UniProtKB/TrEMBL annotation:
Catalysed reactions listed for this entry: a 5'-end (N(7)-methyl 5'-triphosphoguanosine)-ribonucleoside in mRNA + H2O = N(7)-methyl-GDP + a 5'-end phospho-ribonucleoside in mRNA + 2 H(+)
Similarity comment: family membership: Belongs to the DCP1 family.
Enzyme nomenclature, EC number: 3.6.1.62
InterPro entries on file: Dcp1, PH-like_dom_sf
Pfam families associated with the record: DCP1
Name the UniProt record assigns to this protein: 5'-(N(7)-methylguanosine 5'-triphospho)-[mRNA] hydrolase
Keywords tagged on the record: Cytoplasm
Localization per Swiss-Prot or TrEMBL: Cytoplasm
Main location: cytoplasm
Length: 108
């Protein structure tokens, strides 16, 4: 998704409210759904939906993502170990699954 410089600055200010170490936004998707995957039971539990922002950070871990749900005022903030960066493939403005091992202990 393409943003103007002014829009990027506004988005970065919003994202930095959740994590002050964010250096810049890498990519985004308008509508995503996040699921918690239980590998033992092989089940998926819906967590939330919203707008996805993939970012880089000044400190380790250097990558992460934030999903903002303005309707329910929820935020999911997850660091991404390098192994998970290959799982992200944002080709269009929709992104259906986020399966990252770090999410297995996610609390928000």
């Amino acid at each position: 998704m393409m943003f103007s410089e002014m829009e990027k600055n506004v988005i970065l200010r919003i994202l930095r409210r959740h994590n002050s170490n964010i250096s810049h936004m890498i990519d985004s998707a308008i509508q995503v759904e996040a699921y918690l995957y239980n590998s033992n039971a092989k089940t998926e539990e819906f967590i939330m939906e919203g707008t996805l922002f993939v970012y880089s950070s000044y400190v380790r871990p250097y990558y992460g993502f934030i999903i903002l749900d303005p309707l329910q005022l929820k935020t999911l903030l997850e660091p991404m170990p390098y192994c998970c960066t290959e799982l992200f493939d944002i080709r269009s403005q929709s992104f259906e699954y986020i399966r990252c091992p770090s999410m297995s202990n996610s609390k928000f």
